[in-house]
Design the sequence.
């Protein structure tokens, strides 16, 4: 089987059997055709002639061209999925990817909003005094005060909130549920919003809805965060996920427990949460540099 034929079999499989989105299929095929073009230059056109050394050489071509490690890693992931498909369906025998290492990506510290910036969420006048404005205000406050993901926020139902026990039931990744405590003021804000929602659109299943009564989408949440936060923050990035980073970072800065933050965020592994300790160390260094007499010396 030629490499081109093997790519076409894979394309048909992910498009028709797995029914992946057209854009996803295009991304896979684009990476594989890039590999095929490189291999053709090396006179490698048959699957039986393909070696792990060829894959490593192709990887190095992209690394030496200045391509980011994350992009090269994605290319290798496409190749890995392709070769796994070929092995599982009996078209190919060799596990070449076990001999190919993906480039290491430098760890980036999470971007977060400053506490002083987020205080503006509680200013009168930032949000319009209508249904959408009051909904948006509650959405942004909940992102900050609970640390939930935007998909989790969009998926909240009216019965996700227990105003008596002051808890929020969240359905996270892999359908894992977790309970997040909420404080009295937020519970009061939710109660007021529920009353306004009933008056505006009637009874609905979903907590956050459009003014027409349909479930809010993750895309709308993203746009609302950009709308309100872009002019309030100096952060390098503005997105709903930055609220999640801010939630964890601010708790740690106030002496919060890392294990408790892990549970609140719904992380499977503590190592995922530990990245926030690096942010906190940088925060402490910054405080020292700006506040201590010796820290200010050049």
Sequence:
């Amino acid at each position: 089987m030629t490499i081109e034929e093997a790519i076409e079999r894979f394309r048909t499989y992910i498009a028709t059997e797995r029914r992946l989105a057209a854009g996803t299929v295009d991304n896979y095929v684009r990476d594989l055709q890039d590999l095929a073009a490189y291999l053709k230059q090396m006179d490698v056109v048959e699957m039986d002639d393909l070696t792990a050394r060829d894959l490593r050489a192709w990887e190095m071509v992209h690394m030496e061209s200045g391509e980011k490690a994350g992009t090269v890693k994605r290319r290798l992931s496409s190749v890995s999925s392709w070769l796994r498909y070929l092995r599982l369906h009996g078209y190919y025998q060799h596990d070449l990817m076990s001999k190919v290492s993906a480039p290491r990506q430098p760890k980036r510290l999470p971007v977060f909003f400053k506490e002083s910036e987020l205080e503006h969420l509680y200013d009168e006048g930032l949000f319009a005094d209508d249904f959408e404005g009051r909904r948006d205000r509650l959405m942004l406050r909940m992102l900050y005060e609970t640390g939930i993901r935007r998909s989790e926020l969009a998926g909240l139902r009216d019965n996700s909130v227990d105003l008596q026990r002051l808890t929020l039931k969240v359905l996270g990744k892999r359908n894992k549920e977790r309970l997040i405590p909420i404080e009295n003021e937020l519970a009061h804000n939710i109660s007021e919003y529920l009353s306004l929602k009933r008056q505006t659109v009637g009874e609905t299943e979903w907590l956050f809805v459009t003014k027409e009564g349909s479930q809010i989408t993750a895309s709308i949440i993203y746009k609302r965060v950009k709308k309100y936060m872009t002019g309030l923050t100096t952060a390098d990035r503005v997105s709903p996920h930055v609220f999640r980073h801010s939630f964890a970072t601010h708790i740690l800065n106030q002496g919060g427990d890392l294990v408790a933050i892990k549970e609140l965020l719904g992380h499977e592994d503590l190592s995922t949460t530990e990245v926030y300790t690096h942010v906190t160390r940088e925060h402490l260094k910054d405080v020292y540099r700006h506040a201590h007499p010796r820290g200010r010396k050049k």
User: Anything to note?
Assistant: Residues 22-41 form the longest helix (20 residues).
